[in-house]
Structure of proline dehydrogenase:
Amino acid sequence: MEALSRNFFLYLSKNKSLNKMAKRYGLKFGASKVVGGIDFDRTVSVIKNLNNRGLCTTVDHLGEFVNSVDETRERTAQEIHTIQTIAKEKLDAQTSVKLTSLGLDIDHHLVFENMRNILTEAQKHGVFVTIDMEDEVRCQGTLDIFKGLKTEFDNVGTVIQSYLYRSRDDINDLKKLLPNLRLVKGAYKESADVAYPDKKDVDDNLKQMIKDHLTNGNYTAVASHDDQIINFTKQFAEENNISRDLFEFQMLYGMRTQTQLDLVKQGYKMRVYVPYGNDWYGYFMRRLAERPANVAFVAKGMFRS
Ligand code: FDA
């Protein structure tokens, strides 16, 4: 039943006409529970609300796979607008970007140019930018670009996925750059040639990566909704006298809200990943596919938004 529901929502996530329709009609079917707004200006009040509850944020303009140079420039300008709005509204917010939306599949020089423009503006306003990690075929390219940018900018980080066999080596290779890394399990469908097929191995590897990166003394964002991972991080930090200034937890907007608030109450830094934008439909369907429980909570809001 669970697999059926997952496949159904994954199928819906790829439906082009529904996607088109969704863009025309704005956030529907309870999507506002997991998406901040259809543009950044409409997401500001959501972020202020989270900030008022002690939660910091990172915001993500939805939409990947941009195919033309002009579109990448448009995305860059929109990202800069977001950064300027964060500064103007004094939001406790960072941004997250996907390099495919800035030209990763077109030309690496173009991505560098777009990212330099974004990071220069972000640096001016003290905003940190995380480069999300996409599928395995784009991992090396993303890391190469990150390494190049990191030599010029301090306000950039990236993501390492524990399902990939290569990831502990990547952490070791990056450590001399003193990187701020978000550590996750990984969200894409990958083959057993490059990624652990068993969940237990993915979980164990994430724990190892958290240990490695914290022991290296580098800032660690543990992005997981999994109590087992959260408790492991707390205990490892406690037993090894690792300051709470050296790590934070991250979760998606609308997921485990009470747990997010509990972590704040316990004195941990908790950052909420808030997606926004017109391209909300695929993201929303993927969240429904991930967890059948999400369907129930969204169904309640279906007729309200
Ligand atoms: P997982 O899905 O493995 O679930 C483990 C357990 O946690 C469940 O059995 C349940 O007990 C609990 N749980 C999970 N979700 C829950 C919920 N909603 N409510 C209650 N309990 C729940 N991926 C990627 O490839 N590139 C990236 O750049 C990012 N970026 C990113 C940022 C942030 C802030 C987050 C939170 C995640 C990502 N990811 C990502 C996604 C990540 O790789 C992963 O796919 C998801 O976080 C799911 O894995 P979890 O560790 O959260 O729990």
